[in-house]
Amino acid sequence: xxxxxxxxxxxxxxxxxxxxxxxxxxxxxxxxxxxxxxxxxxxxxxxxxxxxxxxxxxxxxxxxxxxxxxxxxxxxxxxxxxxxxxxxxxxxxxxxxxxxxxxxxxxxxxxxxxxxxxxxxxxxxxxxxxxxxxxxxxxxxxxxxxxxxxxxxxxxxxxxxxxxxxxxxxxxxxxxxxxxxxxxxxxxxxxxxxxxxxxxxxxxxxxxxxxxxxxxxxxxxxxxxxxxxxxxxxxxxxxxxxxxxxxxxxxxxxxxxxxxxxxxxxxxxxxxxxxxxxxxxxxxxxxxxxxxxxxxxxxxxxxxxxxxxxxxxxxxxxxxxxxxxx
Length: 326
Ligand SMILES: Cc1ncc(COP(=O)(O)O)c(C=O)c1O
Known about the structure:
CATH class of the largest domain: Alpha Beta
Strand content: 15-25%
CATH topology of the largest domain: Rossmann fold
Bound molecules: pyridoxal-5'-phosphate
Helix content: 40-55%
Distance between the termini: 42 Å
Number of domains: 2
CATH architecture of the largest domain: 3-Layer(aba) Sandwich
Largest sheet: 6 strands, mixed
Number of helices: 10
Shape: globular
Oligomer: single chain
Radius of gyration: 19 Å
Structural class: alpha/beta
């Protein structure tokens, strides 16, 4: 008999087959991350998808994005990838840690100041990247990235500029992979979700989950929770580009999705702590022993609970723990 696992993975493999010329990466350290129940919110049963367990560094879903992106890059003969992010960036850390596995050199531009004694994730990223530089945090890093790309070309290499948040066209496959795992859980546990809640940085993760849900025939509402004080309209450019990429791969996708954006009521800037998110994260930690990363996950969790309070019809919701502690 075909199990839920087989049927969802088969459907994903069929999509890969239909698209053709897809560079499929080898699976990550933990190919399938668990779904765990995490209590109730009103009438809604809550579950968490532990993407923070996908790799030993807790880089989570960014590892899936990097794997699919790097597999394509390697197949295309790319020699060097160029990324940028804040000092604590999970994208930069994921890119740096995975470069060697795909025979890629990884150049990182940190939008921040070099601390006297780098520590934690920054230190790890510096340790595994081919080169690092710190650029003015108030300016886009594009000029520096383009200059690096020229340098690499002059030396006979083939550079690839990675967009912010690792939201590349290939990262759409990472979302489909995640959606296939969610759908597997639903079929095996007999628990269908009404909503899937996820943090929004560039909105690439939320969008690719929506694409995956659509292609695998899952009717979830994907709710993207903005974790800073930008308006959802600011995501429209990234989304429009990703939607074009996705439609080029899958002509059956509708022109407009139903991705919903939610915000946390004490809407704060990027990396600015939210008292409300900290309190909700403490409750989850006390009750379920789950420690939420603060910049994205705790804010998305608290914003997701607020969204659920306004949607009492949602009976089962899945919260994607996109990454672990930095
Ligand atoms: C832990 C975590 N969750 C969510 C996101 C947001 O992902 P996206 O940029 O695809 O919206 C990030 C991005 O850096 C992240 O590090």
